[in-house]
Amino acid sequence: MEKVRSTKLKFKGEKIKKRKREYGDEEPSAGKRADEDEDPETWVLPENPAEIRGPTFIIHPSDPSPISVNFDSTRNKIILSSLNKDSSSDSDAPPLLDRTPTEVAQVWVITRVAGSPTINLRTGTGEGKFLSCDKHGIVSAFREARGPEEEWTPVLLPDGMVAFMNVYENYLSVDEVAGGSLQLRGDSEEVGFRERFWVKIQNKYKKEAHEEKKKREGGSELTVIDETSTNHMHQAWGAGRSVVSKEDKRELKRARKEGRLAEALLDRRAKLKSDRFC
User: Fold this and answer.
1) What is the CATH number for 104?
2) CA-closest candidate to residue 121, choices 44, 53, 207, 42
3) Which tens digits make up the pLDDT trace of 35-59?
4) How far apart are the C-alpha atoms of 111 and 94, rounded to whole Å?
5) Are 120 and 137 in contact (CB under 8 A)?
6) Is 2 helix (H, G, I), strand (E, B) or coil?
7) Domain range for 251
8) What confidence tier does 79 reach under pLDDT thresholds 50, 70, 90?
9) H or E, element range at 133
10) In degrees, to the nearest 5, what angle opens at C-alpha 117 toward C-alphas 43 and 31?
């Protein structure tokens, strides 16, 4: 019998409810990372700045309603949208850290050059515009090319929240303007409540960063090996006798010969100099 497919519309990255582990099910192996059991597209919190990459959901715990940083591709404008707009009351809304994006406008795509502490935030909808901040602190997303003003340094805070520092060493913040509306600014010199954001990434990108870290650590271990000792160990046997090719032997002979000639020349010069003063 053909399996009936669910007609429920799901946003990419939505958490998949798993059945509870029953008696006799295999327990996870000891030492295994907890996020390895998660679905690759589950939205999780980063544990270090290097994990902030790929599709990203940025929210701020504003009062009375938390907001998400959105991009309106129709108006080419950044919008700070209430996350409780679809709830009848704040009490009906799910906990803030359980929220996941429900529309593409809420997703930013974060890229970085390998090894660089800075990131670029590109809109996930429209033609892909970069989040930018000029020297006056004006934040926008209308540039299609990246430059210094499109670079941000994520700073992971002790409580797990993230602050974004721009090229002018100021921080991204939520600012209240005339009429009570909210907008992003980039001229805060210190990190306070307005400069702190919750950032959620997809689990597969967190695991990707973890794998890259392991590879880097493995490569750094190789660099501390004593190359001379290693080469000698792999190219010698017996009493440490070195094995060299015929070409190497000729080079060694020539070097020794030139060395003896140089020594004889220096001795000759020293003798002539001493005879001169006698």
Assistant:
1) 2.80.10.50
2) 53
3) 556 788 899 999 999 999 999 999 9
4) 29
5) no
6) coil
7) 235-276
8) very high
9) strand 130-133
10) 50
